[in-house]
Structures are given as C-alpha cells and as structure tokens.
Write a structure and sequence with these properties.
Blueprint: E1 2-9, H1 15-21, H2 27-35, E2 39-45, E3 50-57, H3 60-68, H4 71-80
Antiparallel strand pairs: 1-3, 2-3
C-alpha cells in the first residue's frame, strides 16, 4: 500500500468557499474515488491556504489515471480550479506531487 501526502495552495480569499464545497462531496465523486483505490483520503487546510492531502492506495499512478477516466472527476476538477493559487498541471488532480516520506512509525 502506498501512502501519499501532497500539498496545494488555496487562495486565502476562497478558504470559506473551499471548506463549504467539501461539506457535501458529490456521491458519484466519492464512488469514483473508492472505485480507483483512493482510501483513507483526507484533506487538511491551514488558515494561510496551505492544503495538505493524504491518501493510501495500492498504486498512486493507477489511482490518478483511473480518476482521469471519470467524467464526474472532470466536472469536479473544473468546479475546483478557481480555488487554487496555481495549478501547474492545470487542475488539482494533475498538479499533485507526492512528498517524500522520510519517517514512518509502524
């Protein structure tokens, strides 16, 4: 199982709206994430807009590719793009760069 942690930056003036958008994630989006192996997926948000995401998956590359094949993901990503400061990949899911894990307590 791969453990993946990543950061993105939410625009400071969009923090409340970003939080609100995640209170009710579309059921079909949740189903797609589960179908493609996104487990224990959590998003944390700091007051300055630093977003930290964490998930566990058997294969992160396949998990991302699987989501990119989903129409619901394209709609979700389009609805999210204006919340972020910059997205080098054009949308949040293609801008994820996993952080190096340097310690794990098992």
């Amino acid at each position: 199982m791969q453990r993946v942690c990543f950061t993105l930056q939410v625009k400071p003036d969009r923090l409340d709206a970003y939080r609100e958008s995640h209170k009710v994630v579309w059921p079909e989006m949740l189903a797609a994430l589960s179908r493609h192996g996104w487990t224990n997926y959590s998003i944390f948000l700091r007051e300055d807009g630093l977003l930290i995401g964490y998930l566990e998956t058997p294969d992160f590359k396949k998990a991302v590719e699987g989501m990119q094949s989903e129409e619901v993901n394209a709609r979700w990503q389009k609805s999210m793009v204006d919340y972020f400061v910059s997205l080098p990949g054009g949308r949040a899911d293609t801008s994820i760069v996993p952080l190096e894990e340097v310690f794990r307590l098992d």
